[in-house]
Automatic annotation (TrEMBL):
Pfam families to which the protein is assigned, alphabetical: Acetyltransf_1
Descriptive protein name: N-acetyltransferase domain-containing protein
Native organism: Brassica oleracea var. oleracea
Segment forming the signal sequence: none
GO cellular component: chloroplast
InterPro entries documented for this protein: Acyl_CoA_acyltransferase, GNAT_dom
Protein origin, superkingdom: Eukaryota
């Protein structure tokens, strides 16, 4: 779903000025446009929440499925463009490699990164969106499942091209501060609480890491995302300077903060 958060700049949070997939540009013939991440008006089918699994992943098959979901969420490609499927795969490959690099701890400036996914059994999903489900499908060794929501939890001082949080202060900042990025839910399953559950799971992971202060960036005009984050306990800490948003050629963003209890 192009409805939730900000993806990472250069490493995964550059939603409005570049692609979500690690800073590459699209070819003019494909007419790639970054979606303004807003709530969908599609009537979402009811899903069996009890069948949903939300967990961290290091499985390459599942990371690939998550990368495909992010490309479908954050990039709007003209379906009539030449070689659209090849271009979409190219974007997915770039995001997949960047995601593996971050999760494996090879990205400089990041103490730790976790990819948290929400998945459902393929057998429980409607075949009306076969293209989406086949793109975001993986096998967990028991059954075929589909990544229907995803986010990154980044333990770091700041994210590239983003305003940085101020909490906590002192030497603990590298270990006790984290940012959410690349928050997305398949548009076919909006309004089923998937985004909220993803964020709740990220809080559990963050507490296990010793995180005390969690941040997320959201555009000023993204009312649906702001409601989601505030429902999850975030409050506004600061706003991106207008000049910075203009320089990066994107809508102005807010920085939201959440204090995590230590016990």
């Amino acid at each position: 779903m192009a409805f939730l958060c900000s993806p990472l700049p250069s490493c995964s949070v550059a939603i409005f000025s570049k692609s979500n997939t690690d800073g590459f540009r699209s070819s003019p013939s494909c007419r790639l446009r970054l979606r303004p991440i807003s709530a969908s008006h599609i009537l979402a089918p009811a899903i069996d929440i009890s069948a949903m699994v939300i967990s961290e992943t290091v499985s390459e098959d599942e990371l690939w499925a998550a990368a495909c979901l992010r490309v479908r969420t954050f990039n709007e490609l003209n379906p009539s463009s030449y070689n659209i499927q090849d271009h979409r795969r190219y974007l997915a490959e770039r995001e997949f490699e960047a995601l593996k690099e971050r999760v494996s701890g090879k990205r400089e400036g990041f103490t730790r990164v976790s990819c948290v996914n929400a998945t459902l059994p393929l057998s429980q999903l409607s075949t009306s969106s076969e293209d989406f489900f086949s793109a975001c499908k993986f096998s967990d060794g028991i059954e075929d499942r589909v990544v229907v929501g995803s986010l990154d939890l980044n333990q770091c001082r700041w994210l590239p091209d983003e305003i940085a949080g101020t909490k906590p202060e002192g030497f603990s900042v590298d270990f006790a501060r984290a940012y959410l990025s690349n928050v997305c839910v398949a548009k076919e399953l909006h309004r089923n609480g998937v985004g909220y559950k993803l964020i709740e799971k990220s809080k559990v992971v963050a507490r296990d890491w010793g995180i005390t202060d969690m941040y997320v960036h959201v555009t000023v005009i993204n009312e649906a995302a702001k409601r989601l984050y505030m429902k999850s306990g975030f409050v506004q800490e600061s706003a991106e300077p207008a000049w910075q948003a203009r320089y990066l050629n994107r809508p102005q963003r807010l920085l939201l903060w959440l204090c995590l209890p230590t016990s």
